[in-house]
Fold SF4 helicase domain-containing protein.
Amino acid sequence: MWRGLLLKGTTCLQQVSAQSFLRQRHFSSQCFRPLTCRFLHKLREIPCIPKLKGTDHFLSHNLIRNYKKDAKSTVEFPLSPITVTDIKQYLRSKDIPFHDGYSCLHIPSIFINPSTRKDSFSLFIDKTTGQFLCKDTLVEGSWEDLQDCLEVMQKDEEDSLSPRVLLGYPEILEEQEERERELREVQGIWSSSVPLTDLQDEEAQLIKTMYQITKISNATLKRFGVRLFKPTKCLVFPWFGGPDSSLKGIKLLSAQRIDAEKVTYNEATVPKSSSYFNLFGLPLVSRMDSEVVVTGSELDALAVSQGTGLPSVALPRGASCLPPALLPYLEQFKRVTLWLGGDIRSWEASKIFSRKLGLRRCTLVRPGEFHPCPLEALSQGKNLSRILKASIPAAHKSIVSFKQLREDVYGELMNTDQVAGVKWTRFPELTRILKGHRKGELTVFTGPTGSGKTTFISELALDLCMQGVNTLWGSFEINNVRLAKIMLTQFAMQRLEENLEQYDFWADKFEELPLYFMTFHGQQNIKTVLDTMQHAVYLYDINHVIIDNLQFMMGQENLSVDKFAVQDHIIGVFRKFATNNSCHVTLIIHPRKEEDDRELQTASIFGSAKASQEADNVLILQEKKLVTCPGRRSLQVTKNRFDGDVGIFPLDFIKSSLTFSTPIKGKLKLRKVTAKPENKEEVQEKGNDVTLKKDEGKKEKATKTAKASQAVKSPVNGSGKAK
């Protein structure tokens, strides 16, 4: 606990949005927490923030504001990543019995009196991160916190600790007011909403038609507690949790008709999504249930429950993320069926989530024409139980036959647009060539020094992040504050220095993006960087990692070692990481020194051919230094492993918003840089020379034409001579 305060500067991940690290934790894990009453008494004597008077009051307010920002923007990451072997060895050394679960280790809770504990193993320790959660008391913390608790218990010869033992700084006024406001908002919406069974038949049928749930019975809606918020015609899904099963939050689902045939559905949660950890349907699950179906939406959970009678739960953020804080609640099930939707993206997410849940117990519903999402399958009258029986095991062997691959191949042929990946909205020409951004690929990006590589790739990543691609930035060349400023300017499409009154508006929207930063700078050990990336993929389901750039990360140390061999090793490590974690890695590499008038090629990438060989995509930002704008820069795709298309398209740089755009066709004109004439007389003299030459050419052409015409008209005698 004291260790957490001393190691506060060792954070390896920095987060843009104010996301909670653990379930409903209102205190920063960086704060020190006393364990016993005498420690707590001593803590009261230590002022958290100095009481300043007069002109120092402003400084005190800023201290509070800075603390709040730091506590919410950083995520604790251990110096040496914990392993499940380390956890087991420590528990054995303390004579603590444990059960080896699928994703967690189970031990008897130390926060419950032994007389009431009996044989309950209700404290869960995450095998990957060491985070723990007691399901009976909802006490949670890091692996270091649990170690400190066990050490104090052993020293004081106690059998248990109070659930209130893990204390932190009291909430500052702003956080407390925000939490109380959210709770009032939740209670207000919930009390104002009505069960669908209380509606008139005509109104209830209209709502069901609007949300395509005409096949969902009123009994199912009532059992899951679904309500309607009449003022906005939104469906309300409750979040009940805690020992007293109190209302902790809600999710609102609204429908909006775009045209006569298309309807879009929007979700909103209170509290905001970063603090919303609701497994919808969990209160209906019995402790004796050994099988569960995990879906990507609340409506799908209703359909599965009604169509199969099996326990079903819905993930709070659909197929985009499976927070590790929810894993303990899924430990009791011996079989977990993942049915997250009916498209390729949900299928990819199912394969990723199965690794967290444990491959040996997971089965996956393969999407396809006959296996749509649960709600659609119920509406079409399909047998949901039969679809679940056709699910395939997540664990796969080393050798497969085409019979096992046949459905996957058919799925890719049928869903070519989804297989191509996420499309860029700001760069349609790049989408035309690469077809999209795909998981599990390695992209190598290069360009001349000072051409705007970081600025371009930040906009490229921002484009994807705005579409829900969870992104992790590793900027080893420029600091995160400067990078965030660039991305915020690109996000707002304007210079905020000139519009500071709009900063909070755009910053609030920017916080909602699933964007994270590594706090490394300069040379770093590849193992440390890789551990941090693995940590982020596990916690936040990162889909895109950007490394800017390879040379800065390698540094200049160990000059005796072959730098090309080191670079090849690092590229191979990133290639393996991208494949094993279904995560797209974009690697920025500086090129070799080339002449200014020569364009870069794939062979211009610094190092050996390893980079271009391992890469799935190779992008080159070309810059014509001897050409004036517009059209000075262009993006060239020299390798595309997905379908082989390559090409080049021009880019215009808009300085006011730090963005790149494709110029309008026909407007692009390149002009070579030449020396300007000294005066107007010289220009006029050159113009006169050109005019004289044109006149001479016209006269010569007219003479030749006249001679040819005369030759045609001249009569010819029998001997072939003209008369």
Observations:
- The first helix runs from residue 2 to 6.
- The mean pLDDT is 80.
- The chain has 24 helices and 26 strands.
- Residues 285-419 form a domain with the Dna Topoisomerase Vi A Subunit; Chain: A, domain 2 fold (CATH 3.40.1360.10).
